[in-house]
Structure formats: structure tokens, C-alpha cells
Design goal:
heterodimer, A: 139 residues, alpha+beta, Archease, Possible Chaperone, Chain: A, domain 1, five-stranded antiparallel sheet, 2 helices, 43% strand, B: alpha+beta, tRNA-splicing ligase RtcB, eight-stranded mixed sheet, 26% strand
Amino acid sequence: MARHCETFDHTADVGLDARGDSLGELLEALAEGLCDVVCPRRGVRGADACTVTATAEDVEALAVDFLSEVLWAVQTDHFAVASVRVIAASETSVQAELTGEAYDPDRHEILTEVKAVTYHELRVAREGGGWTGRVILDL
Amino acid sequence: MARTFEGKIEQIDESRWRIPRITQPGMRVDGVIYASSALIADVITGGGPAQVANVATLPGIVVASMAMPDIHWGYGFPIGGVAATDIAEGGVVSPGGVGYDINCGVRLLRTDLSAPDVRTHVKGLVDQLFRDIPVGVGVGGPFRFAGSDMRRLLGEGARFLVARGMADETDLAATESGGCLAGADPDAVSPRAMERGADQCGTLGAGNHFIEVQHVDEVYDETAAEALGLQAGQVTVMIHTGSRGLGHQVCSDHIKSLRSAPGKYGISLPDRQLVCAPVDSCEGRRYLGAMRAAANFAWANRQLLAGQVRKSLRRFFGGRGRKVKLAQIYDVAHNIAKIEMHEVGGRRRELCVHRKGATRAFGPGHPELPEHLRPLGQPVLIPGDMGTASYVLLGTARAMAATFGSTCHGAGRVMSRKQAIQKARGRSIDKELASVGVIARARGRTGLAEEQPDAYKDVDAVVDCVAAAGISKKVARLKPMGVIKG
């Protein structure tokens, strides 16, 4: 089971359903899924990199905090992300590297604004030897 | 993805439905949903009722966990939700009961133009607004507020702009809470939130936010319309936006800091998004202080946008030898929590009233209304979707007695954004709108598709329901002529 992320419908918003062989892979899949909702990764060059970290009291809160950091990088620091690589992950902390480049309106497309990563029906769990996660984004 | 409610739901009368408190363990009060028989089917399949039941478990909640007829599935609270908690009884405040777009709301300006004056110029006028007004994702505006200016803006709201010549007392009098909630605490707003909002005051944003040129299509109450300066055929401009990235960040920050509060205060929650703390606790006070600051930012935002609308219209019609006068009818919040006094069980109580996708609708004589509106009741502004209509309503005594002075806030979505985009494939939404007389401009590729009229409930049915229930009175219907969106 490789890492994978797809979006699902929620009346006013959009959700991410993801899985990975490890927690790190799951978080990578969720983060890349989030980036694709805001500014699709296709065509983004991996010229630059930045590090994001998060710590939290449990693995679900960790997912929200981590994705919120990624959202900050994309939406507020205007860093278009090409890929996400988790360097180290436990159930209460994560460190990851975002590869990408400064947002360029001529080459990158902003699809939508994500207001926040929510806790509504949030689920991050071990399942069948891997990890699965579900997060709803407020658009 | 929304799921059908399988719990018990029983009809109370023609416009109300009850979810009895025995439906779900932990419910402290009943759920009450305002909906007509025609609207209830969409409500039941829309996922909102389960959230109404969840909200009924919040400590200190009084009377009922309520929802307006524009109810749809949100996160934590339903959109269209109204919940009041008794502060003296350990009542809580929940950021999920306000939402991420704190003080998202609506401002309505009236002009001295008539529909025929504008009809032949709509395209040019919409292009002018689209050029002049910052719209779209991450688009900054001409104003930048930082340091002590940002702190003052968060503390004073639209009032901060008076000394700068960008607001006057008549605008403030025609704004809910005078455009400034007392008790705002800029220290509870993180540097990140201030950074996110620094260049966003005076910008429209994206999503369902818009500025719309409209005309008064129908007047239901001549006396009230005249008192508000409205008449059939008159052109109005509606602004729908909120506190932008600053408000989103305030909500995210405080939900995070409240994560440990339910454990600390022994509160058991059915959904983590309902995280909360007693109003009378350091966590509750801190959130309310930050939320008020974000609400003030939103009022300043709509004030600056109204200023830009005025300039745009004057520039456009000035170039055609026509002077245009604009005056503010009112400005309402529809995502907010406020401390208000209401009569419950025969005595006045201090409540924390959450309105999540619901509008305050104070009735005639309420002391919080400015003198010119007190005999009428508070104007309630209901933005519709681009293809149909918006409404001006008034608050009523019945709303004071039944819903803590609250009513609906819009049409309410029935179609997800993804479904709407799929349904728009192969179609040209802007051409469809033009064929019904509405000129639309949007920055984003999917904005018009996501917000197409079919994505929403029938706003006429929603408004007729609150009018039939007596919690609002219809004054006028406004039809769109042109709209700009993110």
C-alpha cells in the first residue's frame, strides 16, 4: 500500500482521505493533498526547500497542527510546494521538508483559499498495517 | 457526503421541528429546527440535524439548540445554528459556534440611482468595481495595518477609521454594535494572525464572498421601506465578506489553545470541533477577547470596502456627468458570539449567544438599536445567490421571545463545491447569468461554478419560512444586476 490521498465532498467544504505505510507517509500524503487543493503541485519546480515542524498532545491534533503549518507556508509565505518529505515523525511530533519555489502567478494556479484545517470528524489511525487519516478543510 | 439524520425529529408547527433531548445521550435541551414542510426533506438529508443534537450537549445551553431554515452541515456547529449558554450556570463559549470567518457579514448601501439608470451600464460598472476592488485568494489591498495601528483597529473596529476620514457617525449608527464590540483584546490575537491580516483589511477575499449591484424588485412593507430609504426600482450595493485571514487564524489559534479545556473543566464532547470553555474562565475570556478583535477587523474591512464602492461608483458615473449619492442602510454579522441579556424562564439572564450562519434580528424598541431604527426593529440583510434574490427583513418581538433575537442568514448550500463544479462542466455560468440579466466577474477559475444558483436552497422559501414563523418581517426583495467575486 503506497501513500495516497484523495478529496471527498462536504457540503460547504472539502475533505482529504489519505493512507500511507507509515505515519510519516500518511502525513506526506495529507500535506500534498492539501497543497493540491490550494495550489496544484504539477509544474512547480523543486528549486527551494523549507522545513516545517509540529508537536501536539496526540496524533490527531498533530495532523491538524502539521497541516496548518503547511497551509501557512503555501498561503501566507506564498511558497508553492512541489513535494513533501517527512524527515521524522512520532505520534506527537513531526519534522518535514517542503520542496518547491516562490509562488509565481504566471506559472502557478491558486485554486481556492483554505480558511483552516478543522477537527470536525477528524480521524488518524493505524489500520491494516498502515495508517489512514481523514481531515476536513474549511474553504 | 452529508448523511441523512436517523434520529427522532417531530413537527411542532408549520415552521418548526423538534429533536427531543432523549434522542442522543448528553443532550441537555431539545433541538429546534425552523423549516417548512417543503424544506425539511433537504434538512434531514443535509447532515445538519445531527450537529443540532451535538450542540445541545454543551454545558449551560438554555431553551434549545436551534437552527434556521438555511441550515446545512458545517463542522461542529451546523451552519444556521443558534445556541445560547447561561454564563452564571457555567455556560460555555465555543469557537466552533462562531466559525473560522469571524463576523462574516453583510453591508447594504442604497444609491439615488434607479434600475434604468444603471441597466445599460452594468457591464462597465461591474468592470470598474472589478478593477478598483481587491478580490480573490491571497490578494492584498491598498491599506496596511501593523503595530499600534493594527492594535487600535482591533480594539476600535470601524470607529478607528473615523479619524482617518474613512468612516462617519452615520455609517457607525447603521452598523450592528456600532461597528465595534467592546471588550476586544488585541493581546489575545497572535502575531501570526496580525501578519495574515496586515494587508487584508479592505479586501473581499474568495469563496462565497461578493459585492453585488442590485435593484429593489419588490417592496412588501412600504412604511418600513420608506423609513429605510428604499423604494421599488432603486439601485443598492451589497457587500458580503468577513475578517479574512486574521479571523481564520484567530479561530485556529484559539481552538488549539482550548484543546485541553474540556479535560480541565470536565466537559465531554461528541465532536472535537465543539471544543469550548466556560465563558467565565481565563480561556473563555481570552477567546472572546480575540474573537471581538477579529469581529472589529471585519467591520473595518466592510467599512473600507464600502468606501471603495463609493469611489468606484462616483468615478464611473462622474465620468458620465452624474453625481451619485450612497448611504448605508445597515451592516450585520452572521458568524459571531455575543453576551446579551434575554428573558429565559421568566427572568433576565446574561447569555452567550452563538450565531453561526445566523443573523441577529432584534425587535422594535430594543435599546441596542440606534434611535432612527428603534421604532422599526433591526434591519436583517439576507444575501441570496447570484441568480435569484437578496432580502431586507426586520427583527421582531417574536424573534426576541423565541430565538434570542436571531434569524436566517442566507439561502444555505444544498450542493457541495465539488458537485457544483461537476455540474458546471461544459457550461458557461457567466453566460447563463447574463441571460437572466446578471453580469458576473470572478477572479478564480472555479468561483462562479462553485457559487452557481443551483448550489443553494431557494432563498425565497427560506425567507418565507422565517416570516411565517414570525421571527422576521419582510421589507423588500433585491434582484442582482451585476456581481464581482473572488
